[in-house]
Amino acid sequence: NSYRIAVIAGDGIGTEVMPEGLRALQAASEAFGFELDTTEFDWSSANYYSRHGQMLPDDWFDTLRTFDAIFFGAVGWPDVVPDHVSLWGSLLQFRRHFDQYVNLRPVKLLAGVPSPLAGRAPGDIDFLVVRENTEGEYSSVGGIMFEGTERETVIQETVMTRTGVDRVLRYAFELAQSREAKHLTSATKSNGIAITMPYWDGRVAAMAADYPDVRVDKFHIDILTANFVMHPDWFDVVVASNLFGDILSDLGPACTGTIGVAPSANINPDRRFPSLFEPVHGSAPDIAGRGIANPVGQIWCGAMMLDHLGEHAAAAAVQDAFEAVLARGDSSVVTPDVGGSGTTQTLGQAIAAAIAAP
Ligand code: NAI
Ligand code: MG
């Protein structure tokens, strides 16, 4: 098998962790016998935006749409371009135009990564957040009236469509059904948000009938955030609307330690368009250029990408490799954010070396 991958390293530490992500993928392709045909695009703030005054070329959509997947680092360089311009001009274009309606974030406590939650051991926390990524609270329906007067009135509507809600729920139910625990938790707030959230709950209940073997529960978002911290062992697959999912998908990884290891996937499950795999972290201007960024977030994204492409055994081998290297915790190898004195390269090389076919 051969896969065409578009590579966008972006800015800052994106350019430092990307080579390690590619190194791991290369090792996996050799061990498992598939081809990766990568094409790099220098669509960054620091270079591309500085020269062209926009984040992407006008034909980006046609250029990228035929790739099997997009492997993305991080964009943003506030000295050159304001963050809302770099984000809307790049990542959010991909999510919307490629209809990546699932944002998937694993939340897993790894050996060797200190958790901010006291008394939690690896194995206690291992769940997935599925966030609706295209509609909901993040709509452009609304406006401002009587601007600048005492009567100033601002409205922004939540938009839920049956198609939009059902397709992300379907993905979450299928995912839950594929896992050992077969447990799905839905985030709601139907007590306060009394139109859209009861609708969401109703769609969950209707779909649950199709998945009798999946145990379903729901929590209001306020107590759900508390439970992420107090009882992270309660969760297996958590599905949420765009806003709630945004919050949960940052809170989850925060409960498991450094942001440097957290991965995310923006998925178009219909496969009409490429999906995009990116670490949760940004370009980290405060540490950029020092070679100390943790590459595990990027490498973990690579594992998710392999899984999406159907290379499940290779994905598992990459996952096993970074988990083993972090667990070994050799301080001359691992990066400072997990207590070591190693570099992006020493950690990336150790992981690539540990990738092997069974
Ligand atoms: P950030 O994630 O870049 O950094 C937050 C903190 O975490 C910093 O102290 C940084 O040193 C640390 N950190 C991040 N990744 C790390 C890694 N791999 N290893 C070790 N430490 C790591 O978030 P921040 O500072 O809010 O944003 C910086 C720039 O990145 C902005 O321009 C922002 O817009 C952009 N950004 C881009 C994202 C993307 O491309 N998806 C996501 C988040 C931010
Ligand atoms: Mg966020």
TrEMBL record:
Stretches of the chain forming a coiled coil according to its record: none
Matches recorded under InterPro entries: ICDH/IPMDH (IPR050501), IsoCit/isopropylmalate_DH_CS (IPR019818), IsoPropMal-DH-like_dom (IPR024084), TTC_DH (IPR011829)
Show where the Isopropylmalate dehydrogenase-like domain sits. Answer: 4-351
Q: What class of enzyme is it?
A: oxidoreductase
Give the molecular function GO annotations: D-malate dehydrogenase (decarboxylating) (NAD+) activity; magnesium ion binding; NAD binding
Any Pfam family from its record, for instance, is Iso_dh
Q: Give the matching SUPFAM superfamilies.
A: Isocitrate/Isopropylmalate dehydrogenase-like (SSF53659)
Q: What is its EC number?
A: 1.1.1.83
Q: Which cofactor does it need?
A: Mn(2+); Mg(2+)
Q: Which reaction does it catalyse?
A: (R)-malate + NAD(+) = pyruvate + CO2 + NADH
Keywords, ordered alphabetically: Manganese, Metal-binding, NAD, Oxidoreductase
User: Which family does the UniProt entry place this protein in?
Assistant: Belongs to the isocitrate and isopropylmalate dehydrogenases family.
Protein name (record): D-malate dehydrogenase (decarboxylating)
